[in-house]
User: Fold this.
Amino acid sequence: MFKKLTNPFIYVAGSKSLVLGLLTIFGTSIVAYFSKTYFPDIISVKMGVDLSILSSIAQNFINWFVVSILFHLMAMILSKSKIRMLDIFGTQALARFPYFFVSFINFSESLDLFGKYLLWTFMSYGEPIEITIIQKSIAVFLLFISLVFTIWMVMLMYNAFKVSANLKGTKLILSFIIVMIFSMVVLTYLSKILILNIN
Amino acid sequence: MNKKLPIICPSCSSGLKVKSLHCDSCETTITGQFNLPVLLRLEKTELDFVLDFIRCSGSLKIMASKLNLSYPTVRNMLDDLIYKIDKLEQDV
Assistant:
């Protein structure tokens, strides 16, 4: 069971994972629009951001596309196997599955209240907020859950790259880190352009 | 009983060679020193994979659906096997 959760790509890849993954990304975008959750790059999550539904969909698809194309280029350079673009794009799409759950987290008012409470307490920004210990506990629990889901997603992305590119050892670890960093840099710029033009 | 062909020396872990071959029908025994063919130097699971691959007419897609694994997983298994066969051939 643990293997299926951390590396489902041993069993699912190609067109099946692409269809499931694209549906997941679309679903995540819709839920994120209503919960005001924003994914500015491949792993970052921002709560309480007002985006148009089109921006939300475009942002999530761009996040997947940029990281997939970079993984594909890296695999073409480093892998000795006959890799398929369909596997790279499909498995990376399905690897974004945990963020579907993360997009629900901001429906809780506790997180928003906790954010405002922290801003007022530590930076004297905004207005004084009254927050109960239960709301604080819920907010901390939700933050912890989103961290767990983020780790799960990175693990899935790593295993997706490992299976679809057939890389091992140092080559795999280094190339994965390089792509993650580079895609975050690229997506930071693309997100700004997207927000300016679509939102 | 289906006996497993030993390919590694239990004493020093080197690869074993064939020293004699015997005919049950006429009791002839040939003695010499013969290398094991590459396929016989594979592990049982690897040899099973090769046989399955042949039975699937060399189709990775059919192989993947038969083994309930994804296409890249089966392709990776085949690539690892190709690498191992190349290494075994170089070692001869």
Summary: The two ends of chain A are 41 Å apart (CA to CA). Residues 2-197 of chain A form one domain.
